[in-house]
Specification:
- The chain has about 900 residues and is mainly α.
- Among the domains are: about 190 residues, no CATH class; about 160 residues, no CATH class.
- Helices cover about 65% and strands about 5% of the residues.
- The protein contains 38 helices and 9 strands.
- The chain has a 5-stranded parallel beta sheet, with helices on both faces. Strands 3-4 form a two-stranded antiparallel sheet. A two-stranded antiparallel sheet has the order 5-6.
- The longest helix has about 70 residues.
- Keywords: Membrane, Transmembrane, Transmembrane helix.
- InterPro entries: P-loop_NTPase (IPR027417).
Length: about 900
């Protein structure tokens, strides 16, 4: 094949029987190199290039490894290729220049075949003499005989050659797919990993990070231990109040929304920041009513500022338009149908009127005689049967299956009646003597017209479902063809007397009436009668009017003579329900909804989110105490998200005294920060292909809080896009120092609110200088920045300020300790993730106590509890990771920062 690289001789000799196999293998290498998973890794490190990968894949050992899983497909391809090559070689052998005598014999044989196909036998006998003579000549001449045999063999092999070629192509495609999927593809992935060198997981190469860009997208949510515990608790309780407790960002809202999605009826509301129990219950009441109306398929009532006439017009305008359009077509169509069928139906009525009347009179006489006999006591058995029938009828008054029974009978009657009426019309043609006589005359006198009509019927009935017809490769629209065929049928109708007599038969009008009546009965199967509005829907609608409108009624009475007129006017206005009434009505409505759903094995969930927004635990507990009256509805699960301190109050119930949570909550589910395994699962779902070191970095910075975990994962991608860094050492350094700069800015604001003296303000200068170092972060080794971080991380006011340290307030000391511990935590992350050879150091740390990477997240979470306990844990982590501690005298002052970005690595654009 021109344009394709040829394989080396050793490849053909050792692993490939044909050059086409080597070419196919080379094409598979090209396809594997173009795959996104491999292409995005090429060029990340100097030795991982496409040329090096190809050279490695072309070594004898790797070719054997790549081909081994696909030997069966290769053997099938090779067998097909062998047969194809054999046929091609045989054709090349048989092919030779055509001799003149061979051309003459071939033309002579072709002429004989043409004459044989079109001429009489006498001509054939005369013309057959030259071919017979030529055949004897070929038989006697060996050269001619060889040419004829070679040309015939070449012609036969050439005719079957495309079949073997297509088979070889098909086997080649199958082998290449198998080779790419299970042979060369996986092997090339391992080759690329090997060329990337050690610590290759330190490269940032995610497949996608769309999930990180959509934090609230439900399709990326995965289950965790908290969701499983909540599901078990809800399955054990038919109803009750369950609190979901945990730190902010731990996924409480997501957990509530997941439970609401799985419920049969659910309402999710947000607790107000400044709560008012009456207004909260009012909004919850309205939300429940609107949700129920929406789920039942009913429109919500509109409370627009419109006059009564405009409101009525707006409500009934669509119905009026539809009715007007229906009448425009229904009245003329009905008048035409009635006019055309009136005579036939009237004749049928006159024919059977007397017989039907006499039959009805006889039936009525029999019924009256039977009733008189029962009343007179002459028919005792019938009287007993009538009595039993009356008792049974009374017992069936509460049977719930009447509607289904009547619906089934109506469906059966309309279906059977419609089909019988439609079939009766054409069936009656076989019993009509006039129609049979006309059909015989039409077959005898107008066979072509009969054939045309049969063709029209076939096209109209057999091809009804097609929108377009294709005739001879030409696509035709259906409706124009319909019109053309019907016009032709009408012309034949008036120009063919037997056909005209058949169409104008007196019974055809009655047959048309039967068909229309049958179609009407079949159409009646889908008719639905207006159903009364369910009581719960009416109740919800009424409550919405009651809760969202103020209704006023007034009346006026005028009395007296024209000379003396007296007017009396009364006005009545509804009073909004007070809180106790609102609670009672809400519980009654919710109980009815829950009872309905529970009967259908459904679940009702009322989720109240963001209770921890209320501020302190005292306000949250007060809110629970106010809304406690609506809790405890049978078969209703209340899910309430609360802060950790409210959950701790429930856990401590009775110690030392009982609080509002004891009587408000039935159980509680604590949402803990994610473990390292759960964090990896979240990031893998949202950013497939994100390597483990970056998951560990995001987990450590977030402390296992899912909201922060997603934020830090997106921050990693942002830094990669901004700086074009791909190595863990560069990305982690940039990310940790940027996060540290933002946090220290917040601490500096808090420190500015404290009282400082000229002796104690030196600490502010240290923080200022450190933030100056963080303003121009550079991947180059910076000893000054490292010394500045050590100065703040191991800051001791007594050592650095001396006697002036006593002038610091307790709040200032606490803030300094918190800031110092956080800087120590950031410095530890830099030493762990910012140093080369992360994989080896992690494996070594895992063998020591406190060397688990999950402890880094625990230290981050411990910073929110106490800086002293966090510092102790961080020092243990540094020991486990063999991070050197400062020895000797600590730097007494932060070095001055640079005033401009590094010239070798300018500051990346934001």
């Amino acid at each position: 094949m021109p344009g394709r690289r040829r394989a080396a001789p050793w490849q053909v000799a050792d692993h490939f029987a044909y050059g086409r196999e080597a070419t196919a293998y080379d094409a598979v290498l090209d396809a594997c190199l173009a795959e996104r998973g491999i292409a995005r890794r090429l060029g990340m490190r100097p030795q991982a290039t496409a040329e090096n990968v190809r050279a490695t894949m072309l070594t004898e050992a790797n070719v054997g490894r790549a081909l081994e899983p696909c030997r069966a497909h290769q053997e099938r391809f090779r067998a097909a290729l062998r047969r194809y090559e054999s046929i091609r070689t045989r054709i090349d052998y048989l092919h030779d220049p055509v001799a003149p005598e061979t051309v003459f014999l071939s033309l002579l044989s072709l002429g004989f075949l043409l004459v044989l196909a079109v001429a009489p036998w006498t001509v054939v006998a005369v013309v057959a003499i030259p071919p017979v003579v030529a055949g004897f000549a070929v038989r006697l001449n060996p050269v001619w005989r060889m040419h004829v045999r070679h040309n015939a063999g070449e012609l036969a092999l050439t005719s079957i050659r495309p079949v073997y070629e297509a088979l070889a192509d098909s086997r080649e495609r199958a082998w290449r797919r198998e080779l790419q999927a299970n042979g060369a593809g996986p092997l090339m992935g391992r080759v690329v990993e090997a060329l990337l060198g050690e610590d290759r997981d330190s490269l940032l190469l995610p497949d996608s990070y769309e999930g990180l860009r959509s934090p609230r997208n439900r399709q990326y949510v995965i289950g965790n231990e908290a969701s499983q515990r909540l599901s078990r608790k809800m399955a054990q309780l038919e109803g009750g109040t369950i609190a979901v407790s945990g730190p902010r960002g731990a996924g409480k809202s997501t957990l509530l929304e997941s439970c609401a999605e799985e419920a049969d009826f659910a309402v999710v509301v947000q607790a107000p920041a400044t709560y008012s129990p009456h207004e909260f219950l009012l909004s919850l009441y309205i939300e429940v009513c609107e949700r129920y109306l929406t789920e039942q398929g009913h429109d919500l009532p509109e409370f627009a500022r419109l006059t009564i006439l405009r409101r009525i017009a707006r409500q009934f305008a669509p119905t009026a338009r539809r009715l007007a359009r229906w009448l425009v077509f229904a009245l003329p169509a009905g008048a035409l149908v009635v006019l055309g069928l009136a005579a036939a139906t009237r004749s049928v009525g006159l024919r059977y009127e007397d017989g039907a009347r006499h039959r009805a009179q006889d039936l009525w006489a029999d019924l009256t005689d039977t009733a008189q006999g029962v009343w007179g006591g002459e028919r005792v058995g019938t009287a007993l049967a009538v009595t039993v029938a009356g008792v049974l009828l009374w017992q069936l008054r509460r049977w719930q299956g009447w509607g289904a029974l009547f619906g089934t009978l109506r469906l059966l009657a309309t279906t059977v009646g419609g089909i019988l009426l439609i079939l009766a019309a054409p069936a009656s043609l076989f019993f009509d003597t006039g129609v049979r006589h006309g059909a015989r005359e039409m077959l005898d006198g107008a066979p072509l017209a009969t054939l045309y009509l049969a063709l029209v019927v076939f096209l109209l009935v057999g091809l009804e479902g097609r929108s377009r017809w294709t005739v001879g490769g030409v696509s035709l629209a259906r409706r124009p063809v319909y019109g053309f065929l019907l016009v032709g049928a009408l012309v034949l109708l008036y120009r063919t007397p037997p056909m005209y007599a058949m169409v104008t038969d007196t019974g055809n009008t009655l047959r048309v009436a039967c068909v229309l009546l049958g179609l009407l009965l079949l159409k009646a199967r889908t008719w639905t009668f207006p159903q009364p509005e369910p009581p719960l829907v009416t109740q919800c609608r009424n409550q919405l009017y009651r809760l969202q409108t103020v209704q006023t009624s007034s009346s006026a009475v005028t009395t007296g003579s024209p000379a003396l007129v007296s007017a009396h006017t009364t006005s009545l206005s509804t009073v909004p329900p007070n809180f106790p009434t609102l609670v009672s009505d809400f519980r009654e409505l919710l109980t009815s909804i829950a009872r309905e759903r529970f009967a259908r094995k459904g679940r009702v969930v009322i989720a109240i989110d963001e209770v921890d927004r209320l501020g302190s635990d005292t306000q949250a507990l007060a809110f629970l105490g106010e809304i406690k009256a609506i809790l405890g509805v049978p078969h209703v699960h209340y899910l309430i998200s609360v802060a950790e301190d409210v959950g701790a109050s429930f856990i401590r119930r009775g110690l030392p005294h009982r609080g509002v949570t004891d009587s408000s909550l039935d159980d509680i589910v604590h949402v803990q920060p994610c473990t390292l395994k759960e964090s990896k699962g979240i990031l893998e779902r949202r950013a497939p292909g994100l390597s483990e070191p970056y998951s560990l970095l995001a987990h450590a910075l977030s402390g296992g809080i899912p909201r922060d975990l997603i934020r830090y994962g997106l921050r990693i991608m942002e830094i990669e896009d901004k700086t074009r860094f791909f190595e863990l050492t560069d990305i982690s350094r940039q990310m940790i120092l940027e996060e540290l700069a933002e946090t220290l800015a917040g601490f500096r604001v808090l420190l500015a609110k404290q009282e400082w003296t000229s002796e104690t303000s030196a600490v502010l200068l240290s923080f200022r200088n450190l933030m100056g170092h963080l303003r121009h972060v550079c991947p180059c080794p910076d000893g000054n920045l490292h010394r500045a971080l050590h100065h703040i991380a191991f800051y001791d006011p007594d050592q650095h300020l001396g006697n002036a340290a006593g002038g610091l307030s307790d709040r200032a000391r606490s803030l300094l300790q918190e800031a110092s511990t956080y800087v120590l935590f950031s410095l530890t992350l830099l030493d762990v993730f910012g140093a080369p050879d992360f994989a080896r150091r992690r494996a070594a740390a895992a063998l020591r106590a406190d060397g688990d990477p999950d402890i880094l997240a625990q230290a981050r979470h411990e910073l929110e509890v106490s800086p002293y306990s966090a510092r102790s844990l961080i020092m243990a982590i540094r020991t486990a990771w063999r991070v050197p501690h400062p020895s000797g005298q600590i730097v007494t002052a932060v070095p001055s920062p640079r005033t401009a970005p590094c010239s070798l690595h300018p500051q990346p654009a934001s």
